[in-house]
Amino acid sequence: MTTSTRYDYDLFTIGAGSGGVRAARMSGSFGARVAVAESSDLGGTCVNLGCVPKKLFVYASSFSREFADARGFGWTVGEREHSWPQLLAAKNQEIERLNGIYARLLHNAGVDIIRGRARVVDPHTVEVDGQRFTAAHILVATGSWPRMPGIHGAEHAISSNEIFHLESLPRRITIVGGGYIGVEFAGIFHGLGRQVTQLYRGRMFLRGFDDDIRAALAGEMRRAGVDLRMNVNVNAIHKRDGDAGYRLALTDGSTHDTDLVMYATGRAPRSRGIGLEEAGVKLGEHGEILVDEHFRSSTPSILAIGDVLGRVTLTPVAIREGMAVANTLFNNAPTTVDYEYIPTGVFSQPPIGTVGYSEHDAHAHAARGRVDVYVSEFRPMKHTLSGREERTLMKLLVCRDSDRVLGAHMLGPDAPEIIQGVAIALKCGATKAQFDATIGLHPSAAEEFVTMRQPRGDVPPT
Ligand code: NDP
């Protein structure tokens, strides 16, 4: 690659989250002179206020299920108590360790870390706390931020940003929103013994996921004791006199008392107020940066990746985009990102793993819209002894004409782990016949994916 000394840097990355760090490190390893500006902790949302601490919380909360299930296997489980401050302290220690790893990775790739909030001054200049830096390319990897409601009393609600540092966890918690964060935290708080209410404004939460999976998770959460309510939203949040709680005025005319209100109603791209529009960068209607297939904005020296694009807001996607930018700019290998068949997991309890099209969407992608639907629903082996009334659901969607598997969905223990493997098959264009030719791994739940013989609605042969 060729670097120019016309500028201080070849690449100036704004934001040291998953995407920004990967782009900076890779670019540095290709010989580019790189800086990354970060106003908060290294690692961004995923490491500090998202995926990583969330998953640790999921582990923490799932012990209550394990304790209950253990009895059926002959265990006597004694008194149990959970310390939220102890969990926070352990989590904080682990996150600090990861922050350190990120710093070392950047350092080893020769990347300068500049602490402070960056602003774009012109297409080749960035300012951080009054200091100016020039760069051949500026990469915006500023991520996203929780979207809060514009209702009366909104200041009483917290978002997922605050939950990771909350000093204590009250008895009654209400979650607003029916997306990833809402269902994951409903499971976390419930597992930690809190009384959880989750409110969703539409008919069925987890819009965009397969309908059978959504309905099955709703059923399992209710069975476990989460007060899950659909078709309802919050009009206002009132602080109650005389106690630390809140009274919510709901759209169905009722009121609901709670001790903590957490909003999980989506995240907005962090693109405003950092000089982008002044530098000619075009934004979409939700503030997302509009880019071409090589992540160049309408100002070609300014690129963007990750959540700030408002497209597929998942860490591994941001990382892939960061690698594409580094390869394109500094490795003489113009690279795009393929967004088809991205697997994703929802760490609800039980969790969801999914890849490809939902049944609803599969019809649009199958030849002539003809889709065979294979479903398997069963009680996991573990629960034959634990006594837990919980079902696992697995589903395959197959194009009848080409036999290609268009979607694989699972609700049940280890679903995200299982679907990651299935995603490789779908990415390779596997057919149902190839799934069937694969020998099952016994005894496992995953083997169901290669033993589904009869499409739903078909009469079994006699
Ligand atoms: P989501 O976009 O997943 O869900 C937002 C939810 O809030 C939807 O149910 C939506 O309803 C609802 N909503 C939106 N606006 C309002 C409003 N004004 N009043 C009431 N409800 C509203 O966002 P999350 O905040 O849950 O998560 C943000 C993103 O973070 C996710 O989309 C995902 O990309 C990422 N993430 C990924 C995880 C993973 O991979 N496991 C985990 C956590 C987050 P409706 O459906 O009607 O629009």
Write a short abstract of this structure.
This protein folds into three domains: 9-146 and 268-330, FAD/NAD(P)-binding domain; 154-265, FAD/NAD(P)-binding domain, CATH 3.50.50; 344-450, FAD/NAD-linked reductase, C-terminal dimerisation domain (Enolase-like, domain 1). It is 30% helix and 23% strand.
Question: What features would you highlight for this structure?
Answer:
FAD/NAD(P)-binding domain, globular, alpha/beta, 3 domains, 462 residues, five-stranded antiparallel β-sheet, 12 helices, binds NADPH dihydro-nicotinamide-adenine-dinucleotide phosphate, seven-stranded mixed β-sheet, Enolase-like, domain 1
Describe the structure.
The chain is of the alpha/beta class and 462 residues long. It contains 12 helices and 21 strands. The protein has helices at 18-29, 44-49, 51-70, 84-108, 160-163, 180-191, 211-224, 315-330, 359-365, 382-386, 415-427, 432-437, and strands spanning 9-14, 34-38, 112-115, 118-122, 125-128, 131-140, 144-146, 172-176, 195-199, 227-229, 234-239, 246-250, 255-258, 260-263, 267-269, 302-304, 344-346, 352-356, 371-378, 392-399, 405-411. The strands form 5 sheets. Strands 1, 2, 3, 4, 5, 6 and 16 form a 7-stranded mixed β-sheet that branches. Strands 17-18-21-20-19 form a 5-stranded antiparallel β-sheet, with helices on both faces. A 4-stranded parallel β-sheet has the order 10-9-8-14. Helix 6 (180-191) links the parallel strand 8 and strand 9. Helix 1 (18-29) runs parallel beside helix 8 and helix 3 (51-70) packs across helix 4. The longest helix has 25 residues, at 84-108. The chain starts with 8 loop residues before the first strand and ends in a 25-residue tail after the last helix. It binds NADPH dihydro-nicotinamide-adenine-dinucleotide phosphate. The site of NADPH dihydro-nicotinamide-adenine-dinucleotide phosphate (NDP) has 25 residues, from helix 6 and strand 17. The site of NADPH dihydro-nicotinamide-adenine-dinucleotide phosphate has 25 residues, from helix 6 and strand 17.
